[in-house]
Write a structure and sequence with these properties.
- Two copies of one chain form a homodimer.
- Chain A is built from twelve helices and eight strands.
- Chain A has helices spanning about 5-25, 30-35, 40-45, 60-70, 85-90, 110-120, 135-140, 140-155, 170-185, 205-215, 230-235, 245-250, and strands at about 45-50, 75-80, 95-100, 125-130, 160-165, 190, 220, 240-245.
- Chain A has a single domain (about 1-10, about 40-250), classed as Aldolase class I (TIM Barrel, Alpha-Beta Barrel), CATH 3.20.20.70.
- The first copy, chain A, has an eight-stranded parallel beta barrel, surrounded by seven helices.
- Chain A is an alpha/beta fold and about 250 residues long.
- In chain A, β6 (about 190), α10 and β7 (about 220) form a beta-alpha-beta unit.
- The interface of A and B includes residues 59, 81, 108, 109 and 131 of A.
């Protein structure tokens, strides 16, 4: 059903999106105004409170969980080794646990991503941030990219799946292609960046991604969001989730 | 057998090593002289020809394999998604395939590292470069770190296992502890760095690691080795394997 047709679909979507973007410049302002009225608690609900450094210790992860409860962040976003600990800490708190998968290179096999997602969910993760296979996308193996995501989505149910594009490695056409594939694969969010490559989220990328996926999917901005102004700029551009390690500083500025 | 004793062992080894280092400053010169006489072909055999960028395409991986055959590098070092392709390309060539595992954060679960190693070996990898769990090491959970490595070593047989310490995140005491644990776990090499964190191999780290593991184990220097002089400096300091993406440039300078 999919294989060679995917390239045609992607090209079609790409043209449609660029047309839309050139016509549509005014519709976002009403949304922006509304977003400015966010309370601190509402802002906190946009945030995946994130700690992905390889040298993060158990003590730091526990601190992350305490902060997430105190401020009411949407999730804590951690490496797989910490998912179980966070789930135990956060049980009943309303803060979910988000695990990264195939992170940050996205260059493990599909089988491994599936296995990793399965275990993260069984350890208590209700959100899964997987990295797309960038090399396969650049090589136009869209069928591979689709299946890589689709299988993780199927495995992870009922968890939400966010798919990281690593936008700093993609041109606009590739970003659109990636968004179209992610949407078709049934994932719940597209996400800009791992925060481990040469650049993070930009307003332009978030705007583009929101245009491609429409309103039925989420857009997560991550990487380089270190203060309140940047956070608000990303929300105005269309992000409905933010990944950041500066979460406490950001909500305190509200 | 292991649990709490490990900390005592590590402290003991650490003191012993520092004593050795303060006494032993002359023994390396004969080795250095000998290493200077390396031919280009001998130098190539020190090198894991490495391409780990997430945006590496199939075309680039095939080019990597061709270069490895042409110059006679020890291995190609690639992400898991490319192991099968490289094994097929390099069958019978004398160039081995090296897969990274838990890379580059080392913060996946032991089960996942084991599963990833198992599949890499079944895809044809004869060398496995795994990343240590840095957070658990810093938290002094030495038993965890030991088991994490030991299980990958057992799973990967007959493949060689190199264990990446990510030295830029460790102080000297932690580097020594890591080397002692890696050796006890039966791995074949200690390796300095992933090349994806803030710094790569240094002469001082390679010297220290060689002192701790002795002559029965390998030491791989990786990260930031971009020219012939750096490569030779690492070999003089005790490295018997180098991980680099500048391999062709390095051997051509010989």
């Amino acid at each position: 059903m999919l294989d060679q047709k995917m390239e045609i679909i992607v090209e079609h979507v790409y043209k449609e999106i660029l047309n839309q973007l050139s016509r549509q410049n005014n519709s976002q302002h009403t949304v922006s105004q509304e977003k400015e009225a966010l309370t601190r608690a509402q802002l906190a609900k946009y945030i995946d409170h994130t700690l992905l450094r390889p040298d993060a210790t158990e003590a730091e992860i526990l601190q992350l969980c305490r902060e997430a409860q105190e401020y009411g962040f949407a999730t804590v976003c951690v490496n797989p080794i910490w998912v179980k600990l966070c789930s135990d800490q956060l049980a009943g708190s309303g803060v979910q646990v988000c695990s990264v998968i195939g992170f940050p290179l996205g260059a493990s096999t599909t089988c491994l991503k599936v296995e990793e997602a399965k275990r993260a969910v069984s350890d208590g993760a209700l959100e899964i941030d997987m990295v797309i296979n960038v090399g396969k996308l650049l090589g136009k193996d869209f069928s591979f990219v689709y299946n890589d995501i689709r299988r993780v989505v199927e495995t992870s149910e009922p968890a939400l799946v966010k798919v990281i594009l690593e936008t700093c490695l993609l041109n606009d056409e590739q970003k659109v292609a990636a968004c179209a594939i992610v949407k078709k694969a049934g994932a719940h969010f597209v996400k800009t960046s791992t925060g481990f490559n040469r650049a993070g989220a930009t307003v332009a990328d978030v705007t583009l991604m929101r245009q491609v996926v429409g309103q039925e999917m989420g857009v997560k901005a991550a990487g380089g969001i270190r203060n309140y102004d940047t956070a608000v700029a990303m929300i105005r551009a269309g992000a409905d989730r933010l990944g950041t390690s500066s979460s406490v500083e950001i909500v305190k500025a509200r």
